[in-house]
Task: structure prediction
Amino acid sequence: MSRVFARTGLGRMSSGEYQANLNGMNMFFGAVLGFVLSGTEKLSAWQFGVLLTALASVVITVLYISSSKHRLMYSLLALFYAATFPEVMSMLLRGPDLVPDKVRPTLLVWIGMTVMVEFWAREKSQEKSQEKSEDEGEATDKTAVDTPAREPETQR
Result:
């Protein structure tokens, strides 16, 4: 199956493709969220501030999916936040239906696509293999410096 993907161009992603995916999605969904929030005119300044703070927290969690070594946990957390966002905001803002109904699907699609890109197989980059070999060389050098040389026993 992986050979079929590779032949169709859907095999392992290069680091450039990975970065392009993340950058494109983040720009696109940031713009979509801006468009979706156009329905918030009915909110007071305080309510709008609370909504922006909560939404920024969800967006940061989405960005952590691709930036943290705990990507699975951030994926689950982001999905939970997005799934419950309107209901939690209704409690915080003390009113029903104050969050535009398109916020949840926008967040869920963004998270789903980020998770797909993050967990898609990637090529091993040459930079990482070079860094690893340099790190191993430094570790060998450091060990040589830290480990005192044994002097031969000349007399007993």
Notes: The chain is about 70% helix and 0% strand.
